[in-house]
Amino acid sequence: MAIYCGVDIIEIDRIKHSLDTLGNAFRDKVFTKGEIDYCEARKAAKYKSYAARFAAKEAVSKALGTGISEGISWKDIEVVNDEKGKPDVCLSGKAREILNKLGDISISLSLSHSENYAVAYAVIQVRD
């Protein structure tokens, strides 16, 4: 069995600044419609939710061993929540291709935030 992990931490104000100054151009480049709908529904906590998802995309891309490069786009990594609110990851495009090459896998994702920071930790487990 192999385990790949990635972690990322980001200042929530950095994401707030990008959303406030660059608006929809930044938002629509980085986040999927589902992520936008989720974050916007969070009202006062929307910037924390956006920041946590941004950190998750970075953490997953690090666990894949590429970062956001090598053809992986921000929207190739989507954070979704199950019915209880637990975060999960849906991959598409180049991110899905890289994951498929690893074999029989599972991905776990953990998100957290404080007033100032959001953090994400991703673990990819490859079974032999």
TrEMBL record:
<keyword id="KW-0808">Transferase</keyword>
<keyword id="KW-0276">Fatty acid metabolism</keyword>
<protein>
    <recommendedName>
        <fullName>Holo-[acyl-carrier-protein] synthase</fullName>
        <ecNumber>2.7.8.7</ecNumber>
    </recommendedName>
</protein>
<keyword id="KW-0275">Fatty acid biosynthesis</keyword>
<feature type="binding site">
    <location>
        <position position="58"/>
    </location>
    <ligand>
        <name>Mg(2+)</name>
    </ligand>
</feature>
<keyword id="KW-0460">Magnesium</keyword>
<dbReference type="InterPro" id="IPR037143">
    <property type="entry name" value="4-PPantetheinyl_Trfase_dom_sf"/>
</dbReference>
<dbReference type="GO" id="GO:0006633">
    <property type="term" value="P:fatty acid biosynthetic process"/>
</dbReference>
<keyword id="KW-0479">Metal-binding</keyword>
<dbReference type="InterPro" id="IPR002582">
    <property type="entry name" value="ACPS"/>
</dbReference>
<dbReference type="GO" id="GO:0000287">
    <property type="term" value="F:magnesium ion binding"/>
</dbReference>
<feature type="binding site">
    <location>
        <position position="8"/>
    </location>
    <ligand>
        <name>Mg(2+)</name>
    </ligand>
</feature>
<comment type="similarity">
    <text>Belongs to the P-Pant transferase superfamily. AcpS family.</text>
</comment>
<feature type="domain" description="4'-phosphopantetheinyl transferase">
    <location>
        <begin position="5"/>
        <end position="122"/>
    </location>
</feature>
<comment type="function">
    <text>Transfers the 4'-phosphopantetheine moiety from coenzyme A to a Ser of acyl-carrier-protein.</text>
</comment>
<keyword id="KW-0443">Lipid metabolism</keyword>
<dbReference type="GO" id="GO:0008897">
    <property type="term" value="F:holo-[acyl-carrier-protein] synthase activity"/>
</dbReference>
<keyword id="KW-0963">Cytoplasm</keyword>
<dbReference type="GO" id="GO:0005737">
    <property type="term" value="C:cytoplasm"/>
</dbReference>
<keyword id="KW-0444">Lipid biosynthesis</keyword>
<dbReference type="InterPro" id="IPR004568">
    <property type="entry name" value="Ppantetheine-prot_Trfase_dom"/>
</dbReference>
<dbReference type="Pfam" id="PF01648">
    <property type="entry name" value="ACPS"/>
</dbReference>
<dbReference type="InterPro" id="IPR008278">
    <property type="entry name" value="4-PPantetheinyl_Trfase_dom"/>
</dbReference>
